[in-house]
Design goal:
The protein has 655 residues and is of the alpha/beta class. 31% of the residues lie in helices and 23% in strands. The strands form 4 sheets. Strands 12-11-13-14-19-18-17-15-16-20 form a 10-stranded mixed sheet, sandwiched between helices. The protein binds beta-D-galactopyranose.
Length: 655
């Protein structure tokens, strides 16, 4: 059974409200209640004085209503006394100074003092709750960001990481090419994190990219180490504990998720899909869901599901449209979520998030969102086997943290973004009703018919050999521009035409390139379709490959832009430009037809079709991710989907 959860903050409410709140949750069919993630200040009001009575009572109350608890370690919000008494626990900003206190997430993940305090509070929690049947799972911290702290401890940790990787300063200087701009390091004491120039804001492109890439790799592994530090403690007390952390994307939220999730049992995501729609963006919220499923290559949880209009981090968003709560929840389920915990029970009455709405408004009376939750619970009850199924995909898309870091550090062309490349391909697959696994680039590729490799700028020779093997064995591999540009140190490869190590399998090479920014040009495909391109134009020369599309307008008319090479039993496409949605949809449609893969050619725009199957049966989900009514023919029947509506077909009929 798919589990339903509620994010609840008992410490923020008068005791008299707990019983009716929790009783109501149970009555609505809630399975788990997530508590305590920010409650350190209440759990340890003074150094070493613990107040667990209230949490004991909350856990007991939840259990007495037949529900279980997801317990958060409260480390995102250390108490103010700790920061003030121990300034070495405070994170430093990119300007090399301690951050100002007063919001949240100020802890330095590497600080030994912070870790001592964190270890103590986690151990106190474990002594009380670990291994108890009431505890369904643990959540580590909250939305952990990549560790960009620049404090002396993190500087020392960065130095130690670089020393362990390179051994000597000579090796560091050689790997980073520090002869440029007299950047040679002659003493380990000179090595710092990249610090912004006063008054300039932080400009990653101004730093040595090889140094910057290693810095980001260090930050990612520091964050993964922070997660492991907590999972190790919990497992000391309960080796069978189920442990997760709630991830989220954007800004500094890119910690190298696959490394971070290695020590966790389940990947989780905070699912805040758009409440307004823009026609220009490849917006399908399904991309994030498929991305998170790839962290552990299995079904995942939603720790925070959109429960009301958002506030605090911006103006209050519009109210949730009809079907939005239920539709987005089912969309998450369709893409592999086995647990949905809603943010949050009731909208806070105090604090910065007092307008970040939960299921209940301040008025505390039933509303359209609580009714939508009840309807969702009733619907899920009709599909008890659903959690014993998972999405099945024949298409893989490779993601590499190195690529993310490198493109963020060095913008390649105005408007070019790694993330968009991924989303455009994902959008194309969704449009064809084809499921995609977004997986870490070094993953095993067995079983995939199509492997998409967007812009592997930092080119890992091992990944290249996996791709060659997959293509030789019969897969179609799609490689895009800016692949093969850099070596694993993050320096440009010299004396080998692009796409570098991938050129052999692509059967073509790039003669020159033009980063055209936001200008637009056209390509014409072998099927005589004209498609717009932008941002980047590789001028490609075919070696063994054939042309799939050439530029159509001056000055590049007639020059190949997209090629296809027969390689072993498979094919390798090289996409030397960046298109709009239509280009990717056309290309992926052509690949599906060429391979004879099941797909839907006339799916209405914005309608997603996904399948989950396994021991619990087979379920097909039809989701209308738009604000207009849509109709589609399924096995000869017309299925009408309301805006954000979901129809589900199972072995037993429609649900
Ligand atoms: C999430 C966060 C929650 C809450 C929510 C709504 O990013 O984990 O604690 O802040 O956003 O703004």
């Amino acid at each position: 059974m798919i589990q339903i959860g509620i994010d609840y903050y008992p410490e923020q409410w008068d005791r008299s409200m707990w019983e009716p709140d929790i009783a109501k949750m149970a009555e609505m069919g809630v399975d788990v209640v997530r508590v305590a993630e920010f409650a350190w200040g209440v759990l340890e009001p003074e150094d070493g004085r613990f107040e667990f009575g209230w949490l004991d009572d909350a856990v007991d109350l939840i259990a007495s209503h037949g529900m279980r608890v997801i317990l958060g370690t409260p480390t995102n919000c250390a108490p103010r006394w700790m920061y003030v008494d121990h300034p070495d626990t405070v994170q430093w900003d990119r300007d090399g100074r301690p951050t100002n206190l007063g919001i949240r997430g100020h802890r330095c993940q590497e600080s030994a003092t912070f870790r001592d305090y964190a270890s103590r509070i986690i151990r106190e929690m474990c002594k009380r709750y670990a291994g108890r049947p009431e505890i369904a799972a643990w959540q580590i911290d909250n939305e952990i960001e990549i560790n960009h702290c620049t404090c002396p401890t993190c500087t020392a940790a960065f130095k130690a990481w670089v020393k362990a990787r390179y051994g000597t300063l000579d090796a560091v200087n050689a790997a980073w090419g520090t002869e440029v701009w007299s950047g040679q390091l002659t003493d380990w004491g000179q090595l710092t994190p990249p610090l912004m120039r006063q008054g300039e804001g932080f400009q990653p492109d101004w730093y040595n990219p090889a140094y910057y890439l290693d810095y980001e790799r260090f930050c990612a592994s520091s964050t993964a180490g922070y997660v492991r530090f907590q999972t190790d403690i919990i497992r000391e007390y309960d080796p069978d504990a189920t442990i997760t952390t709630n991830t989220c994307f954007g800004g500094d939220m890119m910690p190298g998720f696959h490394e971070e999730c290695a020590s966790l049992d389940v990947a989780s995501y905070d699912n805040y899909p758009p409440v307004t729609f823009s026609a220009d963006e490849p917006h399908s919220n399904a991309f994030g869901l498929d991305f998170v499923r790839g962290f552990k290559r299995r079904d995942f949880w939603i720790m925070e599901e959109l429960g009301g209009q958002m506030g605090c981090w911006g103006p209050i968003s519009p109210a949730l449209a009809p079907n939005m709560l239920e539709g987005y929840s089912l969309q998450a389920v369709a893409h592999g979520a086995d647990l949905l915990s809603f943010f949050r029970w009731r909208t806070a009455s105090t604090g910065a998030e007092m307008f970040c709405h939960g299921l209940l408004d301040h008025a505390n009376i039933p509303n359209s969102r609580t009714r939508a939750l009840e309807s969702l619970v009733a619907r899920l009850k009709t599909m008890p086997g659903l959690d014993d199924t998972e999405p099945v995909s024949k298409v893989a898309m490779l993601y590499g943290a190195d690529q993310e870091f490198s493109f963020r550090d060095q913008r390649q062309s105005d408007g070019f973004a790694y993330w968009d490349q991924l989303r455009l391909f994902h959008d194309a697959c969704m449009n064809l009703g084809v499921g995609v696994d977004v997986i870490e680039q070094s993953s095993d590729l067995a079983g995939y018919e199509v492997v998409i490799v967007p812009s592997m700028i930092v080119c890992d020779p091992e990944v290249v050999s996996h791709l060659e093997a997959a293509a030789k064995a019969g897969a179609t591999v799609v490689v895009t521009c800016r692949s093969g540009v850099k070596d694993m140190n993050g320096n440009c490869v010299v004396g080998r035409p692009l796409p570098g190590l991938l050129a052999d399998m692509c059967g073509c090479h790039v003669l020159e390139y033009d980063p055209i920014g936001r200008a637009r040009r056209q390509v014409r495909t072998v099927h005589d379709t004209t498609l717009a391109v932008t941002s980047w134009c590789d001028l490609v020369e075919c070696d063994t490959a054939g042309v799939w599309a050439s530029y159509e307008d001056r000055p590049y008319d007639g020059i190949p832009a997209i090629t296809c090479n027969a390689y072993g039993k498979g094919f390798v496409y090289y996409v030397g430009t960046v298109g709009d949605r239509d280009l990717y949809r056309t290309l992926m449609g052509s690949i599906m037809r060429e391979r004879g893969m099941a797909h839907l050619d006339d799916l209405p725009a914005g309608v997603e079709v996904c399948e989950r199957s396994g021991e619990g049966g087979t379920y097909r989900f039809f989701f209308n991710d738009t604000m207009d009514e849509k109709g589609l023919m399924v096995d000869g029947h017309l299925v009408t989907l309301e805006p954000l509506g979901m129809a589900i077909e199972s072995d037993e009929g429609w649900k």
